[in-house]
Amino acid sequence: MKTEQLERILYSPYKERILTSEEAAKFIKNNYIVGVSGFTKAGDSKSVLPAFAARAKEEDIKITLLSGASLGYNTDADLAENGALIKRMPFQADPTLRNSINTHQTLYVDQHLSETAEMLHNGHLPKIDLAIVEATYVDANGYIVPTTSVGNSASFTESADEIIVEVNMSIPLSFKGIHDIYIPKPYPKREILHITEPDGRIGTEYMKIDPKKVVAVVFTNKPDSPARISPPDENTSAISHHLLKFFDKEVEDGRLTKSLLPLQAGIGKIANAVLSGFKDSKFKELTMYSEVLQDSTFELMDAGKMIFASASSITVSEECHGHFISNFENYKDKLVLRPQNISNSAEVIRRLGVIAINTAIEFDIYGNVNSTNILGTKMMNGIGGSGDFARNSYLSIFVCPSAPKNNTISHVVPMVPHVDHSEHDVDILVTEQGLADLRGLSPIERAEVILDNCVHPEYKQQLRNYFEEAKALGGHTPHILEKAFSWHINFRDNKTMKLS
Amino acid sequence: MKTEQLERILYSPYKERILTSEEAAKFIKNNYIVGVSGFTKAGDSKSVLPAFAARAKEEDIKITLLSGASLGYNTDADLAENGALIKRMPFQADPTLRNSINTHQTLYVDQHLSETAEMLHNGHLPKIDLAIVEATYVDANGYIVPTTSVGNSASFTESADEIIVEVNMSIPLSFKGIHDIYIPKPYPKREILHITEPDGRIGTEYMKIDPKKVVAVVFTNKPDSPARISPPDENTSAISHHLLKFFDKEVEDGRLTKSLLPLQAGIGKIANAVLSGFKDSKFKELTMYSEVLQDSTFELMDAGKMIFASASSITVSEECHGHFISNFENYKDKLVLRPQNISNSAEVIRRLGVIAINTAIEFDIYGNVNSTNILGTKMMNGIGGSGDFARNSYLSIFVCPSAPKNNTISHVVPMVPHVDHSEHDVDILVTEQGLADLRGLSPIERAEVILDNCVHPEYKQQLRNYFEEAKALGGHTPHILEKAFSWHINFRDNKTMKLS
Asked: What is stated as this protein's family in its record (chains A, B) (predicted)?
């Protein structure tokens, strides 16, 4: 071992347990329930889990795999391809794994990201056999300082019988201090989460574990797989524009100040572009209480617009990663990373009054949102934290382009064939066409506002026709059951939602 | 005025404002936004709002009406019948009003019961012009001591320009003390809700108002309209039995103690019967953190099984009401009534670990629940607080009979045509056939458990056929879009869900 490696193991007994990733991967037994670090590609296992995936190519061995959220590189793909997964939860975003899920080769449990740790603590999921967590280093007590995410790692290491630590040499030692690790006490002894501002701290800078559980320590030196960030395009710029105009009006009407309230933004290019839009706005002293921080957070900090950001992970482009690491000291006191059941806690989200901005796959004329299942059946990624935030937010906003793929698809449909967020949880809908403010509206009023503002011109008359025909049949939420999915069926069969 | 009436007006200036209900009802102007007390028939306006309904029979006058939840007697029916409602929110349970909503004569905004007050405070709903609230009495400061419910009254009186107080002589003066009124501070200054046990108190025993707003005081002497409670039948007893067996197992496995965790039960005969089932069980020292207390709560207290119950209203049968009032001193220290944004607060529900038991209209093979819209279009009552509890509970349980109306309807269907609670928020489903434990299961696994346990024998093969055909098409959540609503369409056209 190199000196700089050994400097990251401040607890001597672990020095006896240093192994290669292949050796460590042997601790994983058939049918194990394995919990791994990693949230939206950040802070995931970069050697032991991939080594296990390789091992599963040769051996008939399968596990149930729990993570924070999506993993990086090809880990999920390799695991799926090599038939190593019985069940996966609570989130994924990998095309190969997705295919394995949709063909019933891998069982997938799509959960609110705040729920997995809760269910583990309550015994509503089986306990973890083995946890694999990435670390910046281990301290003198054998406790783990995480890297670019916290995710469910604290709950996994608490539940697990055995722990494998992956020390990532590419993360600066100065990372200690950006984490705030807190594990709720078991019922009925739960306590108040004393977070009253985005920068509130209630825990420790490390994950306290029982050092006896650590069966292996492995070294890596590989950064997180970078986020693919697209530059703002016409659609994302238009969405951002509509939303900024809306916030302007809220400030003008006295409902919000120029600091707004803490922002949450889902993962992905639309949410990132929307946040970036704040750079050239009148808003100031913005904060985030979110689950993931993307490039836009650091852009807003650099622009002097954002003063603090709380999340469970940092998932940035290669360029932003370099900039962030080189200038870490500038950001360190403006950041905190929390376990995902705290970053996504209903209690804190409601108390802070978070403004939640999430991406929809599609929404319907009454404001129900599908975030997960394409054509109602094929899993895309998962609901992630969108439900944690949408339900308990001050304002629940969903954004998507109105008609992608050369307008062959309308993302505003008669009825969504899968509901992740019901009409009750959706305040504002935005497409590049415009913004629908649904607050205080009945379904019929909502439909009018959505028709007027969000629908692509090529689908406007077609949606109007559906709505008028349905309305004539009566009912609080008018629908024609025979035709509710006709657009989706048409797309499935004819590759367009346009009815001829 | 009689002496005993004047004894209930401890603030002298109000004595000048005593009016008849007809006189008071004249304060209601056309297009007013009126907020009234009343939650599941309890503590509603029994004279002024009915007088307004009568006035609207003669006059062309319409209002937007907000309440806590449903109102008692014929008030909602008369308002609807006389064309007095532009819009109604956030809940109703009246057949005449329901018909008016479903024929688009009254706009209806169906909301999570915790949300209305939040939206008012945040300015996301227009402010209240006039509030009408039932009182036990008004104290020396002009503050209002509520009656059998709190609902949204504190938020309405805060928002309103004018207030009408209805002093109900039928409520004993000793009611003072069972209420705990708290109004959250405006953002960004929200505070922690320091409730860590069902009996926790954070507010005052009265609603603090600005006495200058009080334009009229009216006397009534009429009890709440009684709840219609059916005796347990074969179905509700079987549901109760399955659920008790489940709780037994949870205790045996060490996840729960014999006191379980605080219970919530939705309004209605099934939930009431389920709770009654605890009377002859091994469970003890039970508590409730619910929105409404029904007869079963008092039965459990009488049986020495329940030690404390928190809610926003007390809605009981005539018999139970008499018993409760005559023995009020026995119950007083075991009860607290809170504003519905506190009884249904995500923060408190999650902290206490509430076990939520709510009634579904129907659910589907993947565990999505419809609580509101019959055949996807016709409003029944509303989502009520079921979403507030289901999302943030320790366990989210939904119950319903499997095949009512002579088995012409199956309440387990291929796809629900309206989703109020998505698969993500549903842990346990129970019909008289059995209990499906969905914790940690993927959609395909869920379908098997639901098929095995919940479906009526007369629909089992039919549902199995749908599931197998859908599964063969693939997808994480298999469905046949053309057939997903075929059962509902068949019922609409042929009055049975049985496919020939």
From this structure: Belongs to the acetyl-CoA hydrolase/transferase family.
Is residue B232 very low, low, confident or very high in pLDDT (cuts 50, 70, 90)? confident
User: Cα separation of A73 and B229, whole Å?
Assistant: 59
Interface with B, mutate which of A251, A377, A421, A438 (most B CBs under 10 A)? A377
Subunit contact B126:A383, Cβ cutoff 8 A: no
> Which residues of chain B neighbour A418 with C-beta distances below 8 Å?
477
**CA of B123 vs chain A CAs: smallest distance (Å):** 6
- Which residues of B form the catalytic set? 291
Q: How many CB pairs under 8 A join A and B?
A: 221
Mean pLDDT of A93-116: 98
Q: What number is the ipTM of this complex? A: 0.97
Please say whether the beta carbons of A313 and A151 come within 8 A: yes
Q: E strands along A152-301, which residues?
A: 162-168, 214-220, 263-265, 286-289, 292-293
Q: Where are the beta strands (DSSP E) in B312-432?
A: 313-314, 335-337, 355-359, 362-364, 369-370, 373-374, 378-379, 395-399, 412-413, 428-431
Neighbours of A96 (CB within 10 A): 15
- Cα separation, A463 vs A466, in Å, equals 5
Residue range A155-205, pLDDT digits in tens: 999 999 999 999 999 999 999 999 999 999 999 999 999 999 999 999 999
Question: Shortest Cα distance from A172 to chain B (angstroms)?
Answer: 35
Chain B residues in contact with A470 by the CB 8 A cut-off are: 377
Q: Which pair of tokens denotes residue A5?
A: 């490696």
How far B385 CA lies from chain A's nearest CA (Å)?
Answer: 11
Residue B137's φ and ψ, nearest 5 degrees, are -165, 170
> For residue range A405-430, what is the model confidence (pLDDT) as tens digits?
999 999 999 999 999 999 999 999 99
Distances (CA, A) of B287 to B263, B293, B314, B347, B410: 6, 11, 15, 18, 33
Question: Coil, helix or strand for B379?
Answer: strand
Name the pLDDT band for B273 (thresholds 50, 70, 90): confident
Residue B105 identity: Q
Q: In the annotation, is A162 catalytic?
A: no
Model-wide pTM > 0.90: yes
Section B404-416 average pLDDT: 97
Residue of A nearest to B480 (CA): A377
Closest residue of B to A369, CA-based? Answer: B419
